[in-house]
Amino acid sequence: MKISNMENSSSVMIAIAWCLAWGDERKPKFDLAILQKMRQALKDGEDVPEEVRLIVEQVQQLQGIDEDYFPKSLDDLKTNYPALWNQTNRIGLVYGGATKIKQYVFESSKIQYIRGASALLDRINLIDLPAFFNKNPKSNQYAIQWNEVRKWLDDTITSDYKFSEALIPELIIYSTGGHILAFCPVAFVDDLANAIEKRYTEETLTANSCAVGDTFRLLEIRFGLLQEPIENTLWLDWYRQKYKEPLVQAYFGDLEKNLENSQTERCNNLAVSVEDAFADRKSFNELTTKLTIIFNQRRSGHDFYSRPSRRNPPMFETHPYLMRDEGERRSAVMIVHPPDLPRESHFSEASARKHLVGYRAKKGKPAQPKWYDDSQLTWKSIRVEGWLDKFKSFLQKNPSLEQKYYAGFEPDEIEIPQTLSHIANASKGFVAYIYADGNNMGGYIQKIRTPQKYQEFSRDVGLATEYAVYQALADNLHPHKLQNFNDEESTLGNGALVHPFEIITIGGDDIILIVPANKALAITKNIGERFEEILLKEVPLGESAESEKIIGDYKIKQDNKPVDLKRCHRYKATEASPSQCQLSTSIGMLITAYNTPIYYAKDLTEQLLKSAKDRAKKLKKAGYCSGTVDFLTMKSVTMISSDIKEFRRQALIKNLRPKLKLYAAPYTLHELGGLISVIEALKNAKFPKSQLYQIRSLLERGKQTAILNYRYFRVRLKQDKQNLDLQEQFEEAWCQPKDSKNKGNLAPWIYDDGTLEYDKSDYPLFETIWRDVVDLYDFIASPDDDHDAIEAQTATTETEL
After folding, report:
1. Judging by DSSP bridges, how do beta strands 430-439 and 510-516 pair with one another?
2. pLDDT at residue 260, as a whole number
3. Using CB atoms within 10 A of its CB, is residue 94 exposed (0-12), middle (13-18) or buried (19+)?
4. DSSP per residue, 337-400
């Protein structure tokens, strides 16, 4: 039998056929050579061996089912696909990965440890776990690691048959974002899950991980969980009668609420019918949901009797009279003195591994350092490819961005930042933490019905996230020459060139970055915009012909109902473009001094991200499906002693008449561009900084007082084009009354009637962007400032030469 088209010979088809042909035992049902011939024949579209022909025909029939097909009754399914109905052999599915990732990565406040922890987790997820499945690494530098992982797997899983021979690359559905989802022969499901957990523990010692698996019938891959016998499965007629019951709604979703929302939301503009809701759940999505539930149960300590318990996380004994490592969590096993390291360092074995991996991720540091060789620790680490290496590889494939980023500097002269002070040196001692996460990912995934679509979705989102970051960094940053720099922990001094950013992680739809504060807002805005544009295929991933392409269609299906953009945006709503992409990002951004404790900065950034996501959910009711951003500038570590929401409620909301809200965050991406324009207009108009602060101090005295003082200072400015720009970008763009017949001027206030709020008891009120403008004023670099900085650095280099 010959496979005639590429769709039928997809990796998912090969994976399912491989699992069925292997059988239910640890030893394959057919000779391994026959299985390999079948796999190659499916890849090449050639004739498969006669022994496995029936199996391949059944898999091909499953893959040939139209994506929109859903049987009205089980009798229809039995009549249309009798061979699949009678197929009883099962297929394994395994899901797992790291848990409590931020706890492991941010355990220490030192950037070297953070970089090493992130790189080690990435190596396990992107190199080690795919190596389980014989998936060769793209780079030859990982060949040794790949072979060692394969040997470790066979030594770990004892069997009459080599475990590694039971796994092939096509079994992987996705392996990104710290998690892996893969098919597996039935007999090895628990073994594979155990191996995934053990690999994380053996390599990191302290990182938490979890993996689970289950087996399913062939027909369940397409139509969700089925009873035994299948006739006992509750189907569409049952759902039509029971969909209003609370227990059914908890599993299938609240259908009536979805129907109500579909009348106002463009994000889900096709009415959700009973059949659609049932079909979305009864698909491959139901299998992954079951695995997720089991995953959460095991992570919480639930015992699976066929497997070892994972109730207790990795723990190490310590003693009050023993020296601790630098994180003060575990007993130190070694002390490294200068000059091996800039200062005396105490390492436990777990922290030594982080430091070692972070060290080897640096540019030009492929050799294992002497201090680690002298420790006589047996664990070895290859040089890992850090995010900076991937960024430089991206630049090499995109000459125009490479030229723009390097701005005349030689790439080999530029060092990786060793401390946060290197990044902060580019912005007067301040850095920005950027934490981005995808919106509507869960809602989109719930409508994916096949493993092939899961594979495409994971790949597309991963590519869009990664390339959005690279493009934003290349568009807004340049190598920085250290000036007026003094840090005893750094081996680099004044005049050294560094990359002024740190990519902590890019995984799935998650992004954590540290960048100079003066470019943070522009980078944040660009990431949100590029993510959507890449998914919509409006911008290419790269200039080279080898660039990967986005496969899926993520464009919002337009309906006939127009969107009221004034409900979505407070800034020039008529100039904003309607949302086009079903997926977007919410971003939290914290600007703070470089010596702010990282664990504290991380906590605040997570709160800002949550606030941005809450805003995105409210805007979704108005038809806005794009990104949102919340930010905070913190010039003093003790500025906020409680959580951000409570701080804003107590300090920045005044219960006057009318009620005043002295900030306007979170913002849409369109509004964020308007905020930047206001600051640039103020700088161009040479609005005195003392008056900026004075107007801010007068905001809390009442609406009329703030308006009068703003007008007083504004009319005193020189009447020229810059003054008119301020009037256009701030007063006319932000502060117009809601009633078009009202010709009054509200500046610096914005009227908010609470249309999108669930609780309208505090509305209407007046809010203002003025405090946000003042807080960001020193952290917005104008194009002229950027040009002057590059010229100054270039001139300094030429003088030194």
Report:
1. antiparallel
2. 54
3. buried
4. -TTTSSS-EEE-HHHHHHHHHHHHTSTT--SPPHHHHHTT-----PPP--HHHHHHHHHHH-HH
Cα angle 45, 46, 47; round to 5:
135
CA 157 to chain centre: 33
Q: Which of 263, 259, 266 is nearest to 580 (CA)?
A: 266
- Residue 300 scores a pLDDT above 90: no
Residue closest to 435 by CA, chosen among 551, 524, 529: 524
3-state class of 476 per DSSP?
helix
Question: What is the per-residue pLDDT for 728?
Answer: 86
> Between 349-360 and 189-204, two packed helices, what is the crossing angle to 10 degrees?
90
- Which residues are 214's β-sheet partners? 93
| Residue 313 pLDDT level (bands cut at 50, 70, 90) | low
Q: What value does the mean pLDDT take over residues 136-142?
A: 70
Coil vs helix vs strand at 628: strand
Residue 120 carries which side chain, given as an amino acid letter?
L
- Tabulate helix, strand, coil % of the chain (nearest 5): 50, 15, 40
Q: pLDDT digit string (tens) for 357-374? A: 888 776 545 678 888 888
Span 548-554, average pLDDT? 85
The β-bridge partners of 507 are 510
Cβ contact 239:251 at 8 Å: no
**Residue that is written with structure tokens 């197929």 in the block:** 87
Token pair 């009864």 is found at 282
